[in-house]
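Hi there,

I know you've been waiting on this one. I reran it after we fixed the sequence typo, so this is the corrected version. Both the input and the resulting structure follow.
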Amino acid sequence: MSENTEQKPVTIDKLAHDVKTTIDCSWLTYSFNREKGTLGMEGIFELAYGKKLEMLESPNDTDYAHDVKREELDQWDEETIAEAVESGGFECYNLGIFLNDLCNKGILPEGHYVVRMSW
């Protein structure tokens, strides 16, 4: 016994979604960036925190997606940033904390960030 069920086409208005601005950037500052006078995210971090910070344990060709917004950081986040600045490196899973901190400082605008690590 076979039912004749007609499938309706799926349209975008049926998809639960938000329209966001995506800021797609590289972690590293490549020579072509320097020639254009632009920086990768590592360069922004260095200017903001006063020293070069390494993103540790990041595999090659990895994209990190974070929704960045102005929000108060908790004590653990503040300590994570202070420890990273002191040591010169942070774990890749803490990238979002730094992006929110830079947004709070007015350095980065709010938005959806995709930070590409490729070395």
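Quick highlight: Residues 19-117 form one domain.

Best,
R. S.
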